[in-house]
Amino acid sequence: MAKPSIGRVVRYVLTVQDVVEMNEWCGAYLNNYSEGDEVTAVVVRVFDQTAPVLCNIKCHLDGSVPDFWRTSRQEGTVPGTWKWPQRD
């Protein structure tokens, strides 16, 4: 099983609250997002490697917007978690 480390690319699943915050911060400069949408993110900090492993991530959004940070997020598939990119 892969372990997260600084600099690794992951996918973050947006929550309703994420979408609300993004629209407040970025408004017209942001393309439309909804709960459950996935965005590319980079791991910037990894906390204790015991389960669940928590990471701080920097999300990359589509549009000319500032960085969108999420802190203390764990791996998963539900909104508010990150997951490894699918390999094709």
Please provide a written account of the structure:
- The protein is mainly beta and 88 residues long.
- The protein is 12% helix and 34% strand.
- It is built from 1 helix and 5 strands.
- The protein has one helix at 16-26; strands at residues 9-13, 38-46, 54-60, 68-74, 82-83.
- The protein has a 5-stranded antiparallel sheet, with no helix packed on it.
- Strand 3 and strand 4 form a beta hairpin.
- The radius of gyration is 13 Å and the shape is globular.
- The two termini are 18 Å apart.
- The mean pLDDT is 87.
The ordered H/E elements are EHEEEE
CA(first)-CA(last) distance = 18 Å
Helix content: 10-25%
Structural class: mainly beta
Q: Largest beta sheet, briefly?
A: 5 strands, antiparallel
Alpha carbon gyration radius: 13 Å
Please outline the helices and strands:
Blueprint lengths: L8 E5 L2 H11 L11 E9 L7 E7 L7 E7 L7 E2 L5
Antiparallel strand pairs: 1-2, 1-5, 2-3, 3-4
